[in-house]
TrEMBL record:
CDD domains reported in the protein's UniProt record: IPT (cd00102)
Record's protein name: IPT/TIG domain-containing protein
UniProt domain IPT/TIG: residue ranges: 147-239
PROSITE patterns, per the entry: PROKAR_LIPOPROTEIN
Natural source organism: Corallococcus soli
Stored Pfam families: TIG
C-alpha cells in the first residue's frame, strides 16, 4: 500500500509545480456566509468547536509529501499566517487542501478549541508553500466583534392590528450588513422582525409584526458573518384590551352568510370600540382545509358606537368574494363550533370572544340557500 500512496502524493506535487510553479498567488479570502463581501469579515466569537470556516482562493497552493516511502506518509500543507492588530499562525490541523486554487481553513475564536480571540481590525493574510514562496493579501480579512444587546424598548407600546415600533440598543450593529433579529419563545417557531433600520452601530429601529401573540420573548440578533447574541426574557408583548365582548346571534346556517352584532362592555382600564376600521376575525376551519383553524375576516364591519359593531360572518363564502352562487358553499366555514372571534381595534386594543361563547355554524338544511 505504501507505493501507491507515495506515488499519488508525488504525482500531486509534481503536477502542481509543473503547471503553477512553487510560488503561490493569493487572490482572495471568502467567508461562505457572505460570499459577496470584500474584504471578508469574520467574528472573533462563536463558530462552533473549530471556529469559522473560510476559503482561500488563488493559484499555486502546493502541499509537500513527507515520509512518502514509510508506513506513515504525510502531506505538509502551506503555512497560513495573519498579521495586523495581532499576529497568528494557523494550526496545521485547521487547514485543508482542496486543490491548487483553493484552501479551506477553520479560524479559531474565543469559543473554539483551541481558542484565540483576535483583536478587531484589518489583517494581512499570507500563504507560504512548503518549498518556499509567499503571497500576501493586504487587508484580506476584517475581524469584527459579536453584537451585544443592552436595551430593548417599545416606545409606544404594542398594537395588535399594526406594527409596533421597537428600539434596540447595544453595539456591533452595521448599516452595510443588516442583521437578522428574531423573537424566540420555547415551543414556538422563531418570529423574525422584517422592517428595520440600523441608525448607528449602537441603535436599531424596527417593528414587532402585527398580531404577534402576547407573551415574553428572548430577542436574538445575528450578524451576516455568523455571530449572534441573545437577551433572554427581554421583551414582553401585551396589548391594551377591549371590554367583555358578546355577540348576537351566536349561530347561523352553513348555507348563508350571517349578520351579527358585537357588544363591548368595558370596565376599569378596558377600552370601548374606537371610530375607524375594525378588523374582526372568526377563528375557524374552512372546507378547503378542514384540519386547520384560520382567521377568517368578517365582512361589512361597521362602527356604531363605543359599545357596538355590526358585521357579517361569511359562513357560506369563507374567503371567497361575494356573490356566492353555489348552494353547496364549497369554500364556506366547516359546520361546528362554537368558534372564537378576535377584534383588532384601530386604537391597537385587542378583544376576544372565547370559543365557549363564540359563533356556531349549523349544518345546512335542504331548503337553505346561500345569501348573495
Amino acid at each position: 500500500m505504501r507505493l501507491p500512496v507515495a506515488a499519488a502524493l508525488l504525482s500531486l506535487v509534481a503536477c502542481s509545480e509543473a503547471t503553477e510553479g512553487p510560488t503561490p498567488k493569493l487572490e482572495g479570502l471568502i467567508n461562505p456566509l457572505e460570499r459577496l463581501v470584500t474584504p471578508a469579515r469574520v467574528c472573533n466569537a462563536g463558530g462552533g468547536e473549530r471556529g469559522w470556516r473560510l476559503e482561500l482562493l488563488g493559484t499555486g497552493f502546493n502541499p509537500l509529501p513527507r515520509d512518502a516511502l514509510t508506513d506513515t506518509p504525510a502531506v505538509e500543507l502551506p503555512l497560513v499566517t495573519l498579521s495586523g492588530p495581532s499576529d497568528y499562525t494557523l494550526p496545521a490541523d485547521h487547514l485543508f487542501f482542496a486543490r491548487a486554487e483553493l484552501l479551506r481553513m477553520d479560524l479559531p475564536t474565543r469559543d473554539s478549541a483551541p481558542s484565540s480571540q483576535f483583536v478587531p481590525g484589518a489583517y494581512t493574510v499570507a500563504v507560504t508553500n512548503p518549498l518556499g514562496g509567499t503571497s500576501e493579501l493586504e487587508d484580506g480579512l476584517r475581524v469584527v466583534p459579536p453584537p451585544t444587546l443592552t436595551n430593548i424598548t417599545p416606545p409606544l407600546g404594542f398594537f395588535y392590528g399594526a406594527g409596533s415600533p421597537l428600539i434596540i440598543e447595544g453595539s456591533g450593529f452595521r448599516a452595510d450588513a443588516l442583521p437578522l433579529i428574531t423573537l424566540r419563545r420555547e415551543g414556538e417557531e422563531d418570529r423574525p422582525l422584517f422592517t428595520l433600520v440600523v441608525v448607528s452601530d449602537t441603535r436599531i429601529e424596527t417593528e414587532v409584526p402585527p398580531a404577534t401573540p402576547e407573551g415574553t420573548y428572548d430577542v436574538v440578533i445575528t450578524n451576516p458573518e455568523g455571530c449572534s447574541t441573545t437577551r433572554s426574557q427581554a421583551l414582553t408583548v401585551t396589548y391594551p384590551k377591549l371590554g367583555q365582548l358578546t355577540l348576537s346571534p351566536r349561530s347561523g346556517p352553513a348555507s348563508g352568510d350571517t349578520a351579527i352584532t358585537l357588544i363591548n362592555a368595558p370596565s376599569g382600564n378596558e377600552r370601548p370600540f374606537s371610530p375607524g376600521i375594525q378588523d374582526v376575525y372568526l377563528v375557524a376551519p374552512v372546507k378547503a382545509d378542514p384540519s386547520q383553524r384560520v382567521n377568517i375576516p368578517l365582512r361589512d364591519v361597521t362602527y356604531v358606537s363605543g359599545s357596538q359593531l355590526t358585521a357579517t360572518v361569511p359562513t357560506c363564502a369563507g374567503f371567497e368574494p361575494p356573490p356566492v352562487t353555489d348552494p353547496q358553499c364549497p369554500n364556506g366555514i366547516v359546520p361546528g363550533g362554537p368558534y372564537a372571534l378576535i377584534v383588532a381595534d384601530p386604537s391597537g386594543a385587542l378583544g376576544q370572544v372565547p370559543g365557549s361563547a363564540g359563533f356556531t355554524v349549523s349544518a345546512p338544511l335542504l331548503n337553505d340557500a346561500p345569501t348573495p
